[in-house]
């Protein structure tokens, strides 16, 4: 991967209908400072609003995904006036609002983890639909080693890896390898190194590029409702959504299948395209 050199906290590029958001403050190990979270929220908002966006890819510059919360800002929050509203709780909850939006984003989200994903960085990965990582990637819920807790990311970590694994990592601060992360369901597939990770991202984006863009948005939203709503009414709604899809993208998809050709929405990626989209130029 080309190392970005621009000064934006998050470099956002678009290629083939995919948004690439690269955390870009290596000096802080891509900590989730307010300006970083704000820039990520902007990328999420863009993906929400633009029906031409097919996916969002999250990655970190400088061989580091994200160290999580910006510990350097913690003292300033403790020193702030808490007589009315606790600034520590307020700032913490603001990150949770972002995590909710990221998790609810109707397009596929890929987290490409090279290096460490600690605390909130691990939470960021857990909110993705597909997590890819290098073999030397490291993951940890490290908050308790600082005497604090993984507060706003907890629901997303539990959803990704289950309560038992979340308790194990959160109550011990254990750092796990990429291979161990695959074993607990945190990571979907490993790459040998950063260059191979580019190729792996391209492979998964090509898979996504074979799927109807609207169908993906509808399906991801439907899945998020499963287990949250009564099955009967949800299935009634699902049948209507199926019919709507059949009458729109479905017509082209079925025709392409019969004619043994690519559907007109098909997009392919290669490693060079992924590297270019994540560079600063």
Notes on the structure:
The protein has 281 residues and is α/β, with parallel strands linked by helices. It has two domains: 10-209 and 270-277, 2-enoyl-CoA Hydratase, Chain A, domain 1 (Alpha-Beta Complex), CATH 3.90.226.10; 213-258. Helices cover 48% and strands 14% of the residues. It has twelve helices and nine strands. The chain has helices at residues 34-49, 74-79, 87-104, 120-126, 154-161, 163-172, 178-183, 194-209, 213-225, 231-247, 249-258, 271-277, and strands at 10-15, 18-23, 55-60, 109-113, 116-118, 130-134, 138-140, 176-177, 189-191. Strands 1-2-3-4-6-9 form a six-stranded mixed beta sheet, with helices on both faces. It has a three-stranded mixed beta sheet with strand order 5-7-8. Helix 1 (34-49) links the parallel strand 2 and strand 3 (55-60). Helix 1 runs parallel beside helix 3 and helix 9 runs antiparallel to helix 10. The longest helix has 18 residues, at 87-104. It is globular, with a radius of gyration of 20 Å. It starts with 9 loop residues before the first strand and ends with a helix.
In summary, what is this structure?
The protein has helices at 34-49, 74-79, 87-104, 120-126, 154-161, 163-172, 178-183, 194-209, 213-225, 231-247, 249-258, 271-277, and strands spanning 10-15, 18-23, 55-60, 109-113, 116-118, 130-134, 138-140, 176-177, 189-191. The protein is an alpha/beta fold and 281 residues long. It starts with 9 loop residues before the first strand and ends with a helix.
